[in-house]
Design brief:
CATH architecture of one domain: 3-Layer(aba) Sandwich
Number of helices: 15
Oligomer: single chain
Distance between the termini: 44 Å
CATH topology of one domain: Rossmann fold
Strand content: 5-15%
Largest sheet: 6 strands, parallel
Structural class: alpha/beta
Shape: elongated
CATH class of one domain: Alpha Beta
Radius of gyration: 26 Å
Strand order of the largest sheet: 9-8-7-6-10-11
């Protein structure tokens, strides 16, 4: 479909110089990136998210900037039909198209190609991020602190996606706004859940803010719930924008990108200049378990080192922590809700106690392995490489579910076992012990409360 659309928001009224700047920015090497990002936005909500298929099917699509009354307009040729209803472009898609123009082209000329910001320094990058967010009207001064950033992967299981919706629903009931990477999966789930919570509470100005960058949006369309879209120039500035905007951060299961986000944030929070800055960080469900168990071996090794290398003293500390977290906290929580009594069965107590004993023996085994010369770098992969195999085989035997197991599933288990064996065989040897084992913040990690407040 061929159509000409007029802008809304910050690009609605422009000077002659601004019009010429935008029209000049629309050519050259930027054009193909702009075209792909615009095409991704036009496919928001489509059935297929295969980038190559979308580009192949829309290879005749063209977009250009033309003069319009009071400023500019976008001229689209051969645009996808599903972006229109009764001949009119869906309003959310139209807004996102001009967000692409505003951030990808306008910011390119005003921020990246100017000498206004020194992008080789931390302070210069912070100023640039602040300018981009303010230009996109993403900063809301004098507003209540209620923007919750949700991190997580786009390729999550159905259970994890549903769980992220439940969390979003609870946040929506409490009037929280949602900010994500604006894609699918754990980025869409919290927004979708929050829409129901906001509807029940009659919240009429809810924000569903999506932060992305050109290489991401060109490959993955914003989900249809996003009502504010901001495109940062690159991943580094996108990460900083998340932290600058966040009043709290919730982490769902994810992949390499989510791990990078976590490490980036930890580097900032570990900076002593940020020790008094309140920024709640919540790991949910599987993400919390994965992160905590992943750090368990490291922390145990450090504790054992500082306790004189004893084998049992660290176990006493672990048991005390279990007592506080697994007994005191649940008892107080259940008692406050009047749910401490009732529903206690003998079988439930036996099996739950057996689970606790298994965990305690597992902790003891980990400590013994570390105190016998093992290092966290290979002890923990061996433990958590073998544990899933034991768990899976036990579950299959108990349920007699051999007929339901596919060859590929068994192949995956075998690969896990092979990986554990390879870790054992090729473990690092001859490493010298490190005296200073405590983590330190990166020297150039910028404090949260600087220029972007």
């Amino acid at each position: 479909m061929d159509v000409t659309i007029a802008p809304e928001g910050v690009l609605k009224v422009l000077s002659r110089a601004e019009v010429n700047q935008l029209r000049g920015a629309g050519g050259g090497r930027l054009y193909e990136t702009w075209r792909q990002c615009s095409l991704a936005v036009l496919n928001s909500g489509a059935q297929s998210d295969d980038v190559r298929e979308i580009l192949r099917r829309n290879q005749d699509f063209q977009i250009s900037i033309i003069r319009h009354v009071g400023g500019i307009a976008l001229e689209l040729k051969n645009a996808p039909d599903h972006a229109f209803v009764d001949g009119q472009m869906i309003r959310g898609i139209r807004e996102h198209l001009f967000a692409v123009l505003r951030d990808l082209l306008y910011v390119h000329g005003d921020v990246l190609s100017s000498n206004r910001f020194d992008l080789t320094t931390s302070a210069g990058i912070t100023d640039a991020v602040f300018h981009i967010l303010r230009n996109a009207r993403a900063l809301t001064p004098e507003a209540d602190p209620r923007l919750v950033v949700c991190w997580g992967g786009h390729a999550v299981s159905r259970e994890e996606y549903d769980y992220s919706k439940v969390v979003g629903y609870e946040l929506g009931l409490r009037g929280m706004d949602i900010c994500t990477g604006c894609g699918a999966g754990a980025m869409k789930g919290p927004m979708k859940g929050a829409t129901v919570g906001h509807a029940k509470q009659r919240v009429r100005n809810a924000r569903y803010l999506g932060l992305t960058e050109p290489t991401i949006i060109a490959a993955e369309a914003p989900n249809p719930i996003v009502n504010e879209l901001v495109i940062l120039p690159d991943m580094e500035k996108r990460l900083e924008a998340f932290v600058r905007l966040a009043h709290a951060i919730v982490v769902f299961p994810g992949g390499v990108g989510t791990a990078e986000e976590i490490l980036y944030l930890l580097g900032i929070l570990l900076n002593e200049k940020n020790q008094d800055v309140p920024l709640p960080l919540i790991f949910t469900g599987i993400a919390m378990a994965m992160s905590c168990w992943g750090l368990y071996g490291i922390f145990t090794h450090w504790g054992q080192h500082d306790l004189g290398g004893g084998r049992l003293k660290p176990l006493i500390c672990v048991g005390f922590a279990y007592f506080l977290i697994a007994i005191v906290v649940p008892v107080v929580f259940l008692a406050s809700q009047g749910a401490l009594g009732g529903d206690w069965s003998f079988d439930g107590i036996v099996w739950s106690s057996a689970a606790g004993a298994a965990g305690a023996f597992g902790a003891l085994g980990t400590i013994l392995a570390l105190s016998s010369g093992g290092k966290p770098i290979y002890v923990m992969p061996l433990i958590f490489g073998g544990a899933p195999v034991v768990n899976t085989l036990t579950g299959i035997l108990v349920k007699n579910a051999w007929s339901e197991i596919s060859p590929w599933f068994l192949a995956g288990l075998i690969l896990v076992a092979i990986g554990a064996v390879m870790v054992l065989i090729f473990q690092p040897r001859g490493a010298k012990p490190h005296g200073g084992h405590k983590p330190t913040a990166p020297a150039d990690a910028a404090p949260v409360g600087e220029a972007a407040k």
